[in-house]
Design brief:
Layout: H1 5-18, H2 38-51, E1 57-61, E2 78-83, H3 87-96, E3 101-105, E4 119-124, H4 133-146, E5 147-158, H5 176-185, E6 188-197, E7 203-210
Parallel strand pairs: 1-2, 1-4, 2-3, 4-5
Antiparallel strand pairs: 5-7, 6-7
């Protein structure tokens, strides 16, 4: 059986929780701590935190062990935390349990339990970088469906930079024009805000606004 990188990541989280490691440390911090790494801190301080308010419903695609989910706790009314494995709930609740979290398992990108046009903000970091085209497209379509008009979507996806290492076994790269066209087809408008991650395998955090239906 051929295992793609998105599936491998889910299997790694399953194994982490099964071994009980989630009780000692937050899964995901091995890829950078937002309070310490300069670019991650910028993503947190300039993109995520200013987008939040106490009356909103948010969604995070690829919550993993809660590296970013922690910033939603008690800053919003409700947060859907989405991952491909049920192990994510145990991993997150071990470190930042909160009644406002609702966990959604969506290995195929579909989230029928979330009603249309009910979410105020969507965020995903270090997740779409592993998605093959079909899964990437399905998630974008679903995020478009569940977001309210005017809602922000902060999306990190893999991008080739001339001064970065390329690893196509781990990252699923998509050209800017391709991603822009996909977002436009989902009634998103890209803003002029983005954050480049040229270190490592190369990626970019982009901001889009859900347009009126």
């Amino acid at each position: 059986m051929i295992v793609n990188e998105a599936t491998r990541q889910s299997m790694a989280l399953d194994a982490f929780v099964t071994a009980g490691h989630h009780q000692q440390r937050v899964y995901g911090l091995q890829w950078g701590i937002p309070e310490e790494a300069p670019q991650l801190r910028r993503a947190k301080d300039e993109f995520v935190l200013p987008a939040l308010n106490s009356e909103m419903t948010v969604i995070e695609i690829g919550c993993g062990g809660g590296r970013w989910s922690r910033y939603f706790r008690e800053r919003v009314e409700k947060a859907y935390l989405v991952d491909a494995t049920q192990a994510a709930e145990a991993a997150v609740r071990a470190h930042c349990d909160w009644a406002g979290f609702e966990f959604v398992v969506a290995s195929d990108g579909r989230m029928p339990s979330i009603e249309t046009a009910t979410v105020d903000y969507a965020f995903s970091f270090d997740t779409f970088v592993h998605f093959h085209r079909e899964l990437f497209d399905t998630y974008i379509s679903e995020v478009s469906r569940i977001l309210k008009p005017g809602a922000l979507f902060h999306l990190l996806h893999a991008k080739r930079w001339p001064d970065s290492i390329v690893n196509e076994q781990i990252f699923q790269y998509r050209d800017d024009d391709d991603v822009s066209a996909l977002l436009a087809s989902g009634s998103f408008r890209l803003t002029n805000r983005s954050l480049e991650f040229r270190v490592g395998f190369g990626s970019i955090l982009r901001e889009a606004v859900r347009l009126l239906r």
